[in-house]
Batch of 3 targets.
Target 1
Amino acid sequence: MKEKIAVGVDLGGTTIKMAFVDESGNMIEKWHIPTDITDGGRNIANHIGASIKDKLKDTDLEISSIEGIGIGAPGFINLENGFIYKAVNLGWENYPLKDDLEGITGLPVFVDNDANIAALGEMWKGAGNQAANLICITLGTGIGGGIILDGEILHGANGMAGEIGHITSITSGGAPCNCGKTGCLETIASATGIARIATEGLSDHPESALHQRLDGKERLTAEDVFISAADGDEWSNEVIRTICHHLGLAIANLSNGLNPSKIVIGGGVSKAGDQLLKPLKEVFAQFALPRVYEATDFAIASLGNDAGVVGAAKLLFNQTSKK
């Protein structure tokens, strides 16, 4: 019996990552193409289809061995029909991605939000270690999230579950968020938020080493803060304690309601490793129920840029196994 193969697609604003992935989660081949956002992104599905066809020839795989395509896409998605309501970075609005791609390739296509797909990838083959109940949080320019319950992505009433970055962390005031609210967790614990907090308080800390790190640069980065903190800079360490307080409280509150066995932290900020995890776990222990705390393990995401394609392949296999 021929082994089933999925095409995993991670659709980004500048790059489309793709991979042939077998049922065991092994990547047979991975590659990427640039994202063409001209003409309102209408060429993207054609480019994905053509690229898959070309790669099949390169690898001597037959189209008959491909089960279908799983795709993680940004934006608001109708999970039943793969309809993209809005994906600003791609120029899509009310776009039938699933129907278009199925028509072009002749393969079944399943679409989900890119953050959910990354969580599924980490759960299946990454730091989640196949935990059936998992929260994955990516700390990058913004904050993304995906929640896995009983091995399935939690979507909620209309696909909005997992918007962890928009938990209101500051109830009065706070920095404005791109979503239109103020005080969202994303404005504090993202890479952007960490740099903002460090910069705004810098004038009150003339002794901080961050002054030297800012010298000659347009702005501070989250990496600057963690490097200075490791060197003993007190203001940098205070910034890290602040962001970990808000992030740890949010994760504890989520965990008290969901009771996960694994919290996976990814994104650029996660490169800080234990420098982030140690204070974060201390705050989590303070606010999580004791039995919730006992059941929960923290880990740094391990798949990196492969999480999306691996998770997209897993989405395809999960969906086709139900038919």
Target 2
Amino acid sequence: MNDQSPDLDLSTLADATRGPLSRRTILAGSAFAVPAIALTAGTPAFAASGLTLAFDKASYSGKGCSTISGAQVSAMQGATPKAGAAVTVSLAGGYTFATGGTSTTGTTGSNGLLTLPAINVPANGGNGTASATASGAASTSSTLSGSQSTTAIYLDTSNQRSTAGVPINSSPETAALFLAPDGRLIDGKSANGTVIAYNVAAVGEVYVDETGGDWTLPLLKTDGSNSYVEKSWERSTTGVPANSTPMSSILFLAPDGRVLDGRAGGQPLALDVVAFGGMYHDQSKPQWIMPLRKSDGSCSYLDTSQERGTYGVPSGSTPMVAALFLSPDGRVIDAYGSNGTVLATDVDKFGRIYVDQGAGRWSLPLSKKDGTCTYLLNSVENATTGVPSGSTPATSTLFLAPDGRFIDGNQGNGSVLATNVESFGEVYIDNTGGHWYMPLAIKKTSC
């Protein structure tokens, strides 16, 4: 496919919440016989049930440096809500109340409920507890949990750059684009953080057409509709049903398994698809390739809108990029114009492809089942340098180490490009300008 890549005509880029546990109080009584002589006037009544407390949820969660709002404690006298009960709630694990401190006391209303002040989640998240006490009642507790708080930066050809207008806990997507918690897709490279789109729920893979200077990015909106961004302008799709998954460029995977071109009236390019990989774009042809897995476990790939079968790829394999597939036994198989060439074995995870059009080469990072990391360079597997075991493959020869270092495994002893990295997005390659950009989420140490 790539005339400049002799070994491979291929390739490209590429939580369950437990609902509140129901609290059921089972009251068991016992019947017993009493001699008739004992049944005289004055038999005492059973004592009324005591005061009981309960949180409205068994657990609460939030992101670091944000707040958990609306938590409530109920007070019941038997089966009746208890008004006017003084309830004290204490927090542990680094969690505090927005009103200050780790403890608060309030009085239940006529409905027996006390709504707590907002709870601050610590920067590093973690686990904690909220405990409630009241006079005459047994204490009760609920668990607190939080995720790591992050701030946004991006890499500009290995150099760190700060962003503008990107709020904390935004998700890195591609280039210097971040998805804010409120659904804004923000360009952090612009002076004031330009908003590219609103109400975004999910972002697909960017497609860069360097011959025309264009780029496109497919989106899923919070209302279930789909759109795409073209050179920073949001466009509507046609023929794409609600809640379709954004793939790459203007391609979407419909809930019924059709791969649709959102700019061509929803033209189906493939059917019965359940999984897809990254798109490889060969600017010199032009040609693009994307791997697919069908509902019956078989694999195929799209070759510039034409679906083609694969050879030597076992059922149930994972689509990687271009015509590359990861078999269930850990083999990386090239299905493009071959009988299934094996490029690597014992592979557990893979990153996104990096295509250097000018140099006529591509690279793809891998992590092996034993924890070691390697990368493919034009179909040849190479060892990395300075990349610790258990690192996560990002793109090209870049890996995220377990300790948060972002490492280039092809630079002598492993060049560190960033530290305290929590997550990363997709690389954006500008071959015409000689730059690449990649968004990173960096751990915050304090709020």
Target 3
Amino acid sequence: MPSTETFRIPTRSQHVPTARHYVRKALADWGITDDLADRALLSANELVTNAVSHCRVSHARVRVTLVLCGPDLLLEVSDPDRDRLPRPRDPALDEGGGRGLALVAALADAWGHRQGPYTKTVWARFTLTPAEADRA
């Protein structure tokens, strides 16, 4: 049976560290450490930062869900701004942002997005090594 952790944070940048804390705790509780934890945590940071930065719905909350099912770890970040879909960019070298989705693509085994009736969800999937799956 899959293990799931879900939490919500306000769409304010000062709450991104709170999201990282919850993700780090869930991964540690499942015995996921080292490289996979680092990749998942950095991806969560990028996806939550994007959701917080780009959501244009007043008083919205970002939902973060982690699902551990067999050899897969799924990270989902949802917000109610369903029509503002993520688009990878190719920023200039002197731009301070715009690399988050490229970073997630490099860190995760797969990533994508989907629209629900009232939300959009950006997800990243990571495959556990056999040793990580045995610990989880």
